[in-house]
From TrEMBL:
Gene3D superfamilies to which the protein is assigned, alphabetical: Ribonuclease H-like superfamily/Ribonuclease H
Listed name of the protein: RNase H type-1 domain-containing protein
UniProt source species: Cuscuta epithymum
PANTHER family per record: BNAC02G40300D PROTEIN (PTHR47074), REVERSE TRANSCRIPTASE-LIKE PROTEIN (PTHR47074:SF11)
Single Gene Ontology MF annotation: nucleic acid binding
RNase H type-1 domain: residues covered: 5-108
Superkingdom of source: Eukaryota
Amino acid sequence: MRVWGWLARDEEGRFIRGGWEVFRAYWSAAATEAVEVRKVCTWAKEQGWSKVEVQTDALQVFSRVSEDNRDSYFDLIIDDIRHILQSEASFSVRFCRRSSNQATHVLA
């Protein structure tokens, strides 16, 4: 079982919404983080948001999103994220240190 948390803030940094989810994961921690980023991108797109910055403390996910390298099932998830980012020009993924991402860890 894995737990992940997320939160949404406006451009001023004010809290809009947050949540957490418990799920079974049969893959690596990096793939789990990639699934989380994909879920957040998909959710933000469904909400019709026009400017989104997804922050993740998973350096491997952040790095792979900007690379053109496909060598595993992990990269299929990354390809989904890239597709969402390409279809929503104002969406981005940014790396942040775990210490600055405490709010999501508290939610989880």
